[in-house]
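Handout, tutorial session.
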Amino acid sequence: MLSLFLRKSPSSSLLSRTCTTSPSLSPLSSPLFSRSFSSLLPPQRLPLPYRLSPLPIHGLATRYFHASSPLRNQQKENMEKLKKKFTKYLGQSGGPGDNGPNYKYMGIAAVAVAMAVLLYSVAMPDDRIDFQSFKTQILPSRMVDKIKVLGTDRVVVVMKPGFMPPRGLPTRPNNTYVFTIGDLAVFEKQLAEAQNDLGLDMFEHVPVVYDEGGNLTSSLLSVGPLLLTLAVGGYILYQVKNFGGAGAGGKGMGGLFNFGKTNARVQGLKITTKFSDVAGMDEAKQEIMEFVSFLKNPDKYKKLGAKIPKGALLVGPPGTGKTLIARATAGEAGVPFFSISGSDFIEMFAGVGPARVRDLFAQARTSAPCIIFIDEIDAVGRARSKSGYSNDERENTLNQLLVEMDGFSTGSGVVVLAGTNRPDVLDKALLRPGRFDRQIGIDKPDIKGRRDIFLVHLKVLKLKENIDDVAKRLSALTPGFSGADVANVCNEGALIAARRAKKLIEIVDLVDAIERVIAGLEKKNRILSPDEKKRVAYHEAGHAIAGWYLEHADPLLKVSIIPRGMGALGYAQYQPKDQYLYTVEQLKDRMCVTLGGRVAEQLIFGKISTGARDDLEKITQLAYSQITTYGMNARVGLLSFPQNDDEFGGTQPYSQATARMIDEEVRKMVAAAYDATVTLLTEKLPDIEKVAQRLLEKEVIAREDMRELLGPRPFPESTTFEQLTQDSRSPPPPPPPASPPSNPIPSPAV
């Protein structure tokens, strides 16, 4: 290694010497160094009060001192660039920012070289002949220049210039032929006899040259497959080593032994999520706040003999915020947070899952008190099979998890939180007290919860209207939405406003975002024939009229005949309320509204189409649920059969006679709803005509258009946030009297 060192001249501090970038200096005679140095330093002669002397120093730690030159900073930068060039070229560590040689690309290069050698050996034409051909065709031509014996089994025949190979021999551009021999002494004897038979004098014999080391190229070609196998194997082993080290978070030994290391992400104390960032799940927060109190002040409970709960299972539909509330718990408690997915325990190698479970809890105990969060625990906690056909690796991982959570070596101070949306498939041993002491249900938020969630996501957006009014309006329009759906609506609204080149987001943009999430993207480019468009308009008008004149139908919000999504040619949007119980009358009205489109087609056109496929699926599911699940049929009785969700089918929990009876009752129920819908829409044919014509004219009509065409709906509606959030358990207050009574009755004292 070379480095530059400028030291002061001993003769005089004012002695000036000149330094150029000429490569004539002996230390700079390397072509690489000369090119790099000459391309970086300025070509002019620089007056330096120092003597330039090369010193061999370990590494490339270059020091450059200059007291008076105005180009000092530029020259230092140039020397740093030169240093980096040498470091990169030589593959050495150049400082804390350099990662050193890239073994990954070196491994790829080695594999490429080995493959090239192998391909060359395969693609190279075969110039081998046998000894008999050499004896009868080549040797009699007397054009053999010399014979090389490589090792003990390979002979190369070198021909003189101008040799013309006889018929049957390949033409070689280098005039060499190769053949193999079995024994060197036998070959020498046969060669001498062949030349004697040709009448050659001993002085005319072909000279033989012996090379005990053999030909390097030939040796490489012979071991090419082995080199390729070793190179590929080494590269794979190196990648496995890196994979293992990355999986363990970069700690400890790398290699195959790191497969048993957990790849849980340790958040430490950097979690900034608090309970104030979690909205719409007040009950879940109150229940999980006890874990925060346990972790912050465990002595308060230990004094009374209480034990810290081992864990809690967060159960709820997707997108309800299970992971978010787990992070908020760790953020409030201020303890380390280990986050891992259930599928991270499962590997293709036997024994890896249990080893990762052991390593995870070992790290957690050293960081206690702490929280372990296992997302989608059903991937590893599924109930163990009772038959002989099971996944032994997954079951072994589950067994190790059970032992770590509540076994002989159980430690304290480690709280395990897990999230799943399929608690029914979990093993019973995992759900018992002592492991997951509590199951915290996180359902979809109600209208008040949705308002709080909207307030969280809307505060980062630039709104034109008041944020409280927008949150109330949107929460009333999004029944059944989860927290993830609410976040998606807010983001889609911002994208729509940006697409429309607006500076502020308006309520109409967010309403359009709700339609985008519910029904899909508008397909305005889809061309419908006039007959199809007319049929779609009357179909949607049938839905709208049936819902307008049925008491238990949800309030109509909008009707559109613009195609949306994958296959919807039109849709009617309603505004349902958060309802958990339904009566027979309410379900019947829902069936009639769903059948309104098919009935309208039959009444107007006298023919039906395939446009009611989705409606018929909903009707079938609703009818079967009433009979087989809710016991709403007098003939079948008060029975509820479990729903079989197995995609491979299974045995039905009732006989064939009962199945036949259920099918008959379902047909009767659907037929009754169809007849009721026909009766209703036959009376309202003029109204269907009005709504259909308005749809053909405007393509989209709202609730105000329906009121303009049909008048007010004959039943009261609850559409605003205030109407939907009033307490239905207390009767509405009586209207105030017109005039106060002359002798009011005093209220009894309470």
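The second record follows below. Compare its token runs with those of the first.
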Amino acid sequence: MVEAVFQGCDRTDRARLMHSLVDILMADHKKFLEELRALDHLADQRQAADPHLIKAAVEKLAIGLRRHAALEDEQFMPAFRQRPDLPAEPFSETFFMHLEAEHRGIEDYLQRLSALVNQSPLPFHWPQTYALLARSLKSHFRKEEEQIFPLALKS
């Protein structure tokens, strides 16, 4: 897939594409953090919050996160890993395996949260699962924004 995205690209075009991908991913992070703030508010209300609002917010987040993860996994990360100047530390195979494990963990929390918010009545403990998802996402975003994206933006 990466070869198709970058096929026929010179170094300048490749750099522009990477910048575009980072811009999209960063905009997603910002949007997801706003969605998490809205869910924080709903979680604070616990049982007083409208279950339909909670379910809709979780579904919206899930759709966006899955699209985002596909963009990262299928286009951005393979292209990033092909950089000839990629330093072995911190970008070892173990580092990338950890990122993939984070994606799987986030998907697991997302599935669990979706199952909870689809129950009626809404389980009292749904905010705990949400909190685990939110913490994982924020940590993952920080890693990408502080370690990966700055190098990806270097020409």
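Points raised in discussion: The chain has one domain: 9-152.
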